[in-house]
Amino acid sequence: MNFLLSTLEVAKMATDDYVGFTFFIGSMAMMAASAFFFLSLSQFDNKWRTSVLVSGLITFIAAVHYFYMRDYYAATDSSPTFFRYVDWTLTVPLMCVEFYLILKVAGAKLGLMWKLIFWSVVMLVTGYFGEVIALGNPTMQWVWGLVSGIAYFIIVYMIWFGEAKKLATSAGGAVLKAHNILCWFVLVGWAIYPLGYILGTEGGLFGLQLVEDPKAAQEAMDVVYNIGDAINKIGFGLVIYSLAVTSSKKVEA
Ligand SMILES: *C/C=C(C)/C=C/C=C(C)/C=C/C1=C(C)CCCC1(C)C
């Protein structure tokens, strides 16, 4: 039944439906990336397997949510905000776990992981408040977005300059290199999301709405979020994957 329903709706998708298109591409890309990460596992040394496994879990959780979001959007023609935030609340903390896992070689403590997870949850919960609870109140939408942005910058600080950076520096070599690339993902790749928020939320920027038409604003937000997810989830995973490749003795050149 569900299958029939979604086939019908996919068949109905208009050629200029960029939101539907990016949901569709997103679900396929996340699924393909998961298969790739899972099937590569056996080629790595044990200590790198957990990291690559987590990369696969991140894209797999996203794939399942993208199937839901695609159908939700097709059936209701509105943003699947709830599923979006459930997906992020599961996958963003797992990205924080990745930082901990690769820095374990330099003696990273669980406390570092929990601090990163804590700030990521603050960032997402306040973002959700801004999109849902504060709906119709531009000032509060701007305030929640700002609080979320502060939590985001705390994460950026911790990995670029704080204790995570010190561990990465002491690990050196391939770990430091991978850590630095992940830092760029968080600084530039994750910055795509507040951009989506600003475009789609009434009070996203100093209480202003950039895109006048509410429907167009919603669509811009979804497309930007979908692009952000593909870049960040798959890209992050590939950085971990190549670290595992270069650091595993079992892999033949
Ligand atoms: C796979 C999903 C990822 C990496 C999601 C990341 C989401 C963010 C970095 C969201 C950040 C936000 C702000 C910094 C302010 C406005 C509200 C948010 C939640 C969009």
UniProtKB/TrEMBL annotation:
<keyword id="KW-0681">Retinal protein</keyword>
<keyword id="KW-0600">Photoreceptor protein</keyword>
<keyword id="KW-1133">Transmembrane helix</keyword>
<feature type="modified residue" description="N6-(retinylidene)lysine">
    <location>
        <position position="233"/>
    </location>
</feature>
<keyword id="KW-0675">Receptor</keyword>
<dbReference type="Pfam" id="PF01036">
    <property type="entry name" value="Bac_rhodopsin"/>
</dbReference>
<feature type="transmembrane region" description="Helical">
    <location>
        <begin position="116"/>
        <end position="136"/>
    </location>
</feature>
<feature type="transmembrane region" description="Helical">
    <location>
        <begin position="181"/>
        <end position="200"/>
    </location>
</feature>
<dbReference type="GO" id="GO:0016020">
    <property type="term" value="C:membrane"/>
</dbReference>
<keyword id="KW-0472">Membrane</keyword>
<feature type="transmembrane region" description="Helical">
    <location>
        <begin position="88"/>
        <end position="107"/>
    </location>
</feature>
<feature type="transmembrane region" description="Helical">
    <location>
        <begin position="20"/>
        <end position="39"/>
    </location>
</feature>
<feature type="transmembrane region" description="Helical">
    <location>
        <begin position="51"/>
        <end position="68"/>
    </location>
</feature>
<dbReference type="InterPro" id="IPR001425">
    <property type="entry name" value="Arc/bac/fun_rhodopsins"/>
</dbReference>
<dbReference type="InterPro" id="IPR017402">
    <property type="entry name" value="Proteorhodopsin"/>
</dbReference>
<keyword id="KW-0812">Transmembrane</keyword>
<comment type="similarity">
    <text>Belongs to the archaeal/bacterial/fungal opsin family.</text>
</comment>
<keyword id="KW-0157">Chromophore</keyword>
<dbReference type="GO" id="GO:0010461">
    <property type="term" value="F:light-activated monoatomic ion channel activity"/>
</dbReference>
<feature type="transmembrane region" description="Helical">
    <location>
        <begin position="142"/>
        <end position="160"/>
    </location>
</feature>
<dbReference type="GO" id="GO:0009881">
    <property type="term" value="F:photoreceptor activity"/>
</dbReference>
<protein>
    <submittedName>
        <fullName>Proteorhodopsin</fullName>
    </submittedName>
</protein>
<dbReference type="GO" id="GO:0007602">
    <property type="term" value="P:phototransduction"/>
</dbReference>
<keyword id="KW-0716">Sensory transduction</keyword>
